[in-house]
Specification:
Shape: globular
Order of helices and strands: HHHHHHHHHHHHHHHHHHHHH
Structural class: mainly alpha
Distance between the termini: 20 Å
Strand content: under 5%
Number of domains: 1
Number of strands: 0
Radius of gyration: 23 Å
Number of helices: 21
Largest sheet: none
């Protein structure tokens, strides 16, 4: 058991580090992209981004997570192999239909987004969905065996290729070779081209693994029956996991179809409205970077729910991961809010929209909690329908709140609408389970200590940032310097208070990246 726990934890951090690196790249490329093409050019690129986001959820996180759980439940290797073929075929048919619909209705979607000239970008992104069957099924297959390396390597490779194409398109725009729409089309085509590289890596890895699979098959009677085990309510669970792992994408969709018009309704002209939407979209890479931690934990938690007769053993590991994940998400949220003007200036040259982005960062903590709740309770068929109803209510709340808040508060209203809509789901799920914290091992003391640690760290960092800002002229270089000074201080405060209030056990400390070194540095004892 200890070996499997160690393997699960190692697998979590392999995928986490790869995801963090990918999301770090995703945040970094937006710096030259926004600097070269400006806020309007950034808007042109980002307006179609939710389509790529759905592809990313299907290929990188949502589908692989639930597929890995289903694969892990199979009793024989032959059954797992048969399931892989059936899953691939089903996804292939579905994704060909999706690609066709997006391609033929691209002009209509672009019109609804507020700019009919965006339709080539919609078509460019639609091609990426043809790769989902390869990426999702193979990643799910590997993750079911806690083999995270193929998912990690393919994910990083895909992102690198995509970013090269995006930056290349931006440079061609900067030199006058591309207009803003051609730049957006080529930049968004990076999803398809990068995906081809990822598929190549996954297929090569699978062919290597297939030799082991063939040997294992020889030891199993092919003539005997090898039934594919499917849980009752599997379809609902698939929808649930895919929907909730990509929850922020659906809010971005609503913003893509509503924010521009609502800003113009408030009296802002089209050009300025597009710039404001571009500023609002600055928050997306930071949000993704934070949420990727919880998604990586979910990726490893799901396969461990495979055997009900080992629930008590698995429960212990899951509870540790839940506590550590929430601890990290609070640290990220509090830190980004405290550093927001400097982070914004460092990445995007100025502090425009910093208050709006600070509000937006609350989503990291809320969505991380939602992802964990959904992962741990996804097998509860009786309540899964209620969760989907909550999701629908949340989307309706987002639409209504956008209409109410954006004309009054601008892009800050959009951020408030997103956070409040996420709270509909979070508190709704907690109400469904009568605020029972036991299955997550979240006692009242831990939750209160987590809130206190986050607030204290944020306040201290904010004071340090204010004092440093008074001593220098606030620009990009000085913002980099302030962040370099404030971030380590904030991290040390957070670690020290966590140790002081004994919030994590030694085993939970060791789950952290470089956990053994941190336990030695912080002198953590049992």
């Amino acid at each position: 058991m200890q070996k499997e726990v160690s393997r699960a934890i190692k697998g979590t951090w392999i995928l986490t580090i790869a995801s963090l690196f990918s999301e770090l790249l995703s945040a970094i490329y937006r710096i030259p992209l926004q600097n070269i093409v400006g806020d309007r050019g950034y808007f042109i690129y980002q307006q179609v981004y939710p389509l790529y986001g759905i592809f990313s959820v299907l290929a990188l996180s949502g589908l692989p997570v639930v597929i890995s759980k289903t694969f892990a439940q199979q009793d024989t290797i032959i059954a797992k192999h048969n399931l892989l073929k059936k899953t691939f075929n089903l996804l292939l048919v579905s994704c060909v239909v999706i690609t066709g619909l997006l391609w033929f209705y691209a002009k209509y979607l672009a019109f609804l987004m507020g700019d009919p000239n965006l339709y080539p970008e919609v078509r460019a992104v639609s091609l990426a969905f043809l790769l989902v069957p390869f990426e999702a099924s193979l990643r799910g297959y590997f993750q079911s065996n806690l083999i995270m390396e193929p998912s990690a390597i393919s994910q990083v490779s895909e992102q690198l290729v995509r970013i090269v194409i995006i930056i290349g398109s931006a440079l061609l725009f900067g030199r006058g070779v591309f207009d803003v729409y051609k730049m957006g089309t080529w930049a968004n085509s990076g999803a398809f081209i990068g995906g081809i590289f990822a598929v190549f890596i996954l297929v090569i890895w699978f062919l290597k693994d297939k030799s082991k699979l063939d040997k294992a098959k020889l030891h199993q009677d092919k003539k005997s029956h090898h039934p594919i085990k499917l849980e009752h309510g599997l379809v609902l669970e698939v929808v649930l996991i895919v929907v909730f792992t990509g929850i922020t994408i659906f809010y971005q969709f609503i913003d893509s179809f509503s924010m521009l018009r609502l800003l113009m309704h408030a009296g802002i002209n089209l050009n300025q409205a597009e710039i404001q939407k571009g500023i609002f979209d600055r928050g997306q890479p930071l949000l993704q970077l934070g949420i990727v931690l919880s998604l990586s934990f979910v990726s490893t938690i799901m396969p461990q729910l495979k055997e009900t007769n080992r629930l008590k053993q698995n429960k212990s590991t899951i509870q540790k991961m839940v506590r550590v994940c929430l601890w990290l998400s609070v640290a990220e949220t509090a830190g980004l809010i405290a550093l927001m003007p400097q982070i914004n200036t460092m990445l995007f040259t100025d502090a425009s929209g910093s208050k709006s982005l600070a509000i937006y960062m609350l989503s990291i903590m809320i969505v991380s909690f939602i992802n964990l709740l959904i992962a741990v309770t996804s097998g509860d068929d009786e309540k899964n329908v209620h969760k989907l109803i909550l999701f629908g209510m949340s989307l309706l709340a987002k639409i209504a709140l956008n209409i109410i808040l954006i004309p009054k508060f601008g892009i800050a209203g959009g951020a408030m609408a997103t956070v409040l809509s996420e709270c509909v789901i979070l508190f709704g799920i907690l109400i469904i389970y009568n605020f029972n914290r036991e299955f997550l091992s979240l006692d009242k003391k831990f939750i209160l200590s987590l809130i206190k640690v986050g607030l204290i760290m944020a306040i201290v960092v904010k004071i340090i940032v204010k004092l440093l800002s008074m001593a220098v002229i606030v620009n990009r270089p000085s913002s980099v310097l302030i962040n370099i000074i404030a971030i380590p201080i904030g991290a040390l405060i957070y670690l020290s208070l966590t140790k002081h209030w004994q919030m994590l056990t030694k085993e939970e400390w060791e789950i952290l990246p470089m956990g053994k070194y941190i336990t030695k540095f912080m002198k953590i004892r049992e």
